[in-house]
Amino acid sequence: MSSDITFSIIKPDAMGREDEGKILTRITEAGFRIAALKMIHLTLQQAREFYAVHHDKPFYPGLVEFMSSGPVIAMVLRHENAVEEFRNLIGNTDPEKAEKGTIRADFATTIQRNAVHGSDSPENALREAAFFFSSLEIF
Ligand code: IDP
Ligand code: MG
C-alpha cells in the first residue's frame, strides 16, 4: 500500500504563473489518481518543519522562504510504484538537468523554483501526506 502513494506539492513559482492546471493534467494523464488535494499558504514555520530534513543545507533558508511566499497545491497521488514513477515524471531537481518532457524541464525555472515537489521514498510519502492531510481526507 505505502509504495502506491506519493505526496506532491505544486510550488509557488508554478502557482504564480498559473501553471497548476497544466501540471495537474500532466499528472492525471500519466495515470496518477488524485487521492487528496488542497490549496494552502504555508507559514514560514510550517515550511521549516516540512523541509526539516534539509535544515543543514545552504539552500534551506531560501527554500523555506520561497515555499512560504504564496499558496501551493498539496496532493496525495496514487499509482503503482508511485514514488519512483512520480520522480520519473517530474525529472531532476535542477531543470537544466531534467530530462526532456518532464514536468520540471517544462515548468521549472531554477533549481530552487522547480515547480513541483515529489516524495523521495514510500516512508517519506506517508510522513509528508500526514503533515498535510488527516486519514479521513485521503481517498
Ligand atoms: P527534490 O525536490 O528533487 O527531492 P531535494 O534535494 O530534496 O530535491 O531538495 C528539496 C528542494 O530544495 C528542491 O526541490 C529545491 O526546491 C531546493 N533545492 C535543492 N537543491 C538546491 C540548491 O542547490 N539550490 C537551491 N535550492 C535547492
Ligand atoms: Mg527531496
Main sheet: which strands, in order across?
2-3-1-4
How many β-strands, per DSSP? 4
Shape: globular
Which fold name is given in CATH as the topology?
Alpha-Beta Plaits
Give the CATH level 1 class.
Answer: Alpha Beta
Number of domains: 1
Question: Which compounds are bound in this model?
Answer: inosine-5'-diphosphate, magnesium ion
Number of separate helices = 7
The name of the CATH superfamily reads Nucleoside diphosphate kinase-like domain
Helix fraction?
Answer: 25-40%
The main pleated sheet reads as: 4 strands, antiparallel
Q: What is the ordering of alpha helices and beta strands?
A: EHHEHHEHHEH
Strand content: 15-25%
The low-confidence runs, each spanning 5 or more residues with pLDDT under 50, are none
Radius of gyration: 14 Å
Query: Which structural category fits the helices and strands?
Result: alpha+beta
At CATH level 2, the architecture is 2-Layer Sandwich
Distance between the termini: 13 Å
Q: What number is the mean pLDDT?
A: 97
